[in-house]
Structures are given as C-alpha cells and as structure tokens.
Write a structure and sequence with these properties.
By secondary structure, the chain is α/β, with parallel strands linked by helices. It is built from seven helices and seven strands, in the order βαβαββαβββαααα.
Length: 217
C-alpha cells in the first residue's frame, strides 16, 4: 500500500538513489535502462579521478573491491559490478579477464574467434556479480547468468563488448542483432538487477527511500 500524506492522498515513492561505481558508459546506460524510473543512478564524474585496480580472482572479489572502495570515499550506498564471458571450450576464458582480452572490443572479439576456430562446441555464458554496499561492512550480492553460444562471426550493430558474437539460448541472433529491448530483458545484468530491485523494494522503508533520494555527489 502506498503511504499517505497528511491530506490522505497517496504519496508516490521517490526514486531510490544509488551510486554506480563504474565509468563504463555502456554499462551505465544499460543499468539505468533496466532499473527504470524507480531508481536514480548517480555516476562517477570525469573529475573524480580515483580508480581501483581489479586485483580479485573472482567476479565477486572485484565487485566487492570497487563497492567498498567508493563507499568509504562517498559514504553513500554504492552499486558495483564485475562481469565476464566464460567459454566452455576455452576453459572458461576470457572470464574475469574479459575486459583485458585485447585493447579494443574488436581485438577481443577477433582473439576469441581465432582461439575457437571452427570448433563445434561453442557453449558460453555471461556472468555478472553486483555488490550493493550500503553501510560499513554491510552489503548484499546479486548474481546473474545468461547461457548461450559463440557465433562464427560478428553480427549486429547494437550493444557493446562481446554482444556481436554472443547468441543467447533460445535465439538465433546475437545480442547485437536482438537490440537493447530484448537484451535488457534476458541478459545476465537484467537477471541480477531484478533481484536487486526486489531487495530494495522489499527491505528499504519508505522513509529511508525518501531520505536517500536527496543525496548528491
């Protein structure tokens, strides 16, 4: 039930504000689109020069490093993520090193296609781990996975990263061909962020949402 103001009218819940601990503009756009109007996402400004190395050995370790690092500086709730493409035939590579598998998206894609060659087993999965860090030593973890296969050549113009070569299960087109509307419904990030949204809506009181909605960087 919606809370009511003094006049008896229902109050609309203010958007829940959270800092996205990433500078990747593609990820920011995707996260904002998936979370929707109930969330106000603040981002790290260009003038905010501090960075943290992803030294973890797992997606969770890297995500937690980033969330904790920025929470200690900003003193406000932070949402960080780390994600990767895990290919069965490449023993899980590129995995946590997905963003470092080449200097550009094109180089990374070409490297994977060269390493796979014409192998028939092209099973792969995108994995993501989000960490919502909201108080000293307090955080929640949200995971998502999208199973699929690697195409033999890049196709499509939408998306970013490995989207032109990843075909999600149940489809015959790559993420880049399917477009943002479908991808943002079935992707690994979509699955994890749905869990995050349910957590916030089920665990954060209206009064705290109202207070939290006012903070700025």
């Amino acid at each position: 039930m919606q809370p009511k103001n003094k006049g008896g009218a229902c109050q609309r819940k203010p958007p829940f504000t959270v800092l996205l601990a990433t500078r990747n503009k593609h990820k920011i756009e995707e996260i904002k689109a998936i979370l929707g109007k109930d969330f106000k996402c603040l981002t790290l400004s260009d003038s905010f020069k501090l960075r943290i190395a992803e030294t973890g050995r797992t997606l969770l370790e890297n995500s937690l490093l980033k969330a904790q690092f920025f929470y200690k500086i900003i003193k406000k709730p932070c949402l960080a993520e780390d994600s990767g493409l895990f290919i069965d035939k490449l023993n899980g590579a590129p995995g946590i090193y997905s963003s470092r598998y080449g200097k550009t998206d094109q180089e990374r894609i070409e490297r994977i296609l060269n390493e796979l060659g014409n192998k028939k087993n092209r099973q792969a999965r995108f994995k993501v781990v989000f960490v919502y860090y909201y108080a000293p030593g307090r955080y929640e973890v949200f995971t998502g996975e999208c199973i699929g296969r690697i195409a033999y050549e890049p196709k499509g113009k939408d998306g970013f990263g490995y989207d032109p070569i990843f075909i999600p299960k149940g489809f015959n087109k790559t993420f880049a061909e399917l477009g943002f509307k479908i991808k943002n419904r079935i992707s690994h990030r979509a699955k994890a962020l749905r869990k995050f949204k349910r957590y916030i809506k089920g665990n954060v009181p209206f009064s705290l949402m109202n207070k939290n909605s006012k903070f700025e960087l």
